[in-house]
Amino acid sequence: MTAIKKELSFWQIWNMSFGFLGIQFGFALQGGFMSRIFQTLGADKDAIPFLWIAAPLTGLLVQPIIGYLSDQTWSPKFGRRKPFFFIGAVFSTIALFFAPYSSTLWMAAGALWILDASINISMEPFRALVADKLPDSQRSYGFVVQTLIIGIGTWIASNLPWFMTKLGVPNTAAPGVVPDSVKYAFAVGALVLFTSILYTILTTDEYPPEDLEKFEAEKKKGFLSGVQEIFKNISGMPKVMKQLGLVQFFSWFAFFTMWSFATPAITEHVFGVTDTSSEAYNDAADSVGNYLGTYGLVSMFYALALAFVTSKFKINRRLLHLVSLLAGACGFISIYFVTAPWMLHLSFMLVGISWASILSMPYAMLSSSVEPKKMGVFMGIFNMFIVMPQIIAALGGVNFLYKLIFGEAVINTMLLAGLLLILAAFSNLLIQDKRATHD
Fold first, then answer.
1. Which pLDDT score is estimated for 219?
2. What is the separation of C-alpha 201 from the centre of its chain, rounded to a whole number of angstroms?
3. Which pLDDT does position 1 carry in this prediction?
4. 10-437 maps to which CATH number?
5. Which residues of the chain register pLDDT less than 70?
6. Transmembrane residues, as ranges (predicted)?
């Protein structure tokens, strides 16, 4: 018998999602500044995507396993998803703090690997928690509130090195050394990551499994049986998941392209600087972080508007996501035509609209189409469609495609990102299941 889930208030949903503030601090600092760290340590810009490869490769393995394990976990004291929140928070905090102290490229790539794997341990159960706790009528609302918190985290974290510089912390250092402004920013991010996840753990209760006796019996099957179960779920994934997977593939290929190349592309194309030890480059790199913060800020306001709409009205998730992705495509393409740095804020405002939708609508559509008792493992499997495009991009997909289609200049990576979001937008038209598309 399926338990009837109570509708939760905004603040109850806020509390259960607040840990995403810290998770996004980690992702924003990683996405906005790891390429800067790689360049500072001597990486050629064409080699940067390859240095990211360990992170998505690990995610490909970690996400479905963690999803499955969290589905099979229950403790009256610690809950189902919360133990994974805590474990991921501890390792993420350590990795985030030490990443900017890397003295070689292999150390920085290793720190990124540990950081990304650890954040994924916490993140996937957070996605499942929304589906665990909320009735279907509040699913879109719940994922939108998560996106609101993510937007806040993206904006603040992306601006931290710039803010540290304004406080007088040096943003330049000797060649091959990461500036103190970046080190301090990562330390603040580590603190926020741990405390925000701890806040969710302390303020949120979880429902026990609906049939505890059956749950305990299934839990005794063993690890090998669990692996077989994961592969069985992969081969038998719902049709809606496959269709959404194509949307996710193009979407995350686009954003991985931005995270890998925004700093070298914008510092070179808009600011005209390439010397990573120069004050001009580091000022420009701080500014790139500020522009990236704009997409987080706009995603926050867009999510706030969506939170109001989804709490009052039924929406067409598919159409909303399609339009939002097209807005982001226009944002990426416009970066190529920027003639003054302030115009980048306008470009990233459009990117922020697509980012808010990417973080909410696909998950809302998916959660209405899978079995509740397998929510964790399916959320983990679904995120394979996030890491697979990143792996392809990191193995040379970005370098090959942008040079083949648009030409050698590194700014052409932003044109490629725009094209990919256009493909993602129109892939939504493949989704026909009304349970997924309509709230």
1. 59
2. 21
3. 41
4. 1.20.1250.20
5. 1-4, 211-226, 311, 372-373, 376, 435-439
6. 12-30, 50-70, 82-99, 105-123, 143-164, 184-202, 244-262, 291-310, 319-338, 344-365, 377-398, 410-431
∠ CA(259), CA(264), CA(267), 5° rounding?
Answer: 120
User: Would you mind telling me the total number of residues written for the chain in this entry?
Assistant: 439
Integer Cα distance of 251 and 247 in angstroms: 6
- 116 alpha carbon, distance to own chain's centre: 10
- Alpha-carbon span 276 to 349, nearest angstrom: 27
- Give the span between the Cα atoms of 171 and 162, in whole angstroms: 8
For 370-400, write each residue's pLDDT tens digit.
776 677 677 777 878 888 888 888 888 888 9
Model pLDDT, residue 311: 66
What is the C-alpha end-to-end distance of the chain, expressed in Å?
24
- Residue-level pLDDT at 2: 46
CA 20 to CA 153: how far, in whole Å?
Answer: 8
- The answer to whether the predicted template modeling score (pTM) of the entire model surpasses 0.85 is no
Spatial distance between the Cα atoms of 162 and 290, rounded to a whole number of angstroms: 7
**Domain residues of the chain, as ranges?**
10-437
Whether 26 contacts 185, CB under 8 Å: no
Cβ 5 vs Cβ 139: under 8 Å: no
Distance CA 83, CA 67 (A): 12
| 126 closest CA partner among 112, 147, 111, 157 | 147
Q: Return d(Cα 229, Cα 119) in angstroms, integer.
A: 24
Question: Token match 């996030």: residue?
Answer: 386
Largest CA distance in the chain: 65
In degrees and rounded to multiples of 5, residue 438 shows phi and psi of: -115, 135
Cα gap 45→350, rounded to integer Å:
26
How confident is the model over 94-145, as pLDDT tens digits? 999 999 999 888 899 888 888 888 888 887 788 778 778 888 778 778 888 8
Distance of CA 383 to the CA centre of its chain: 10
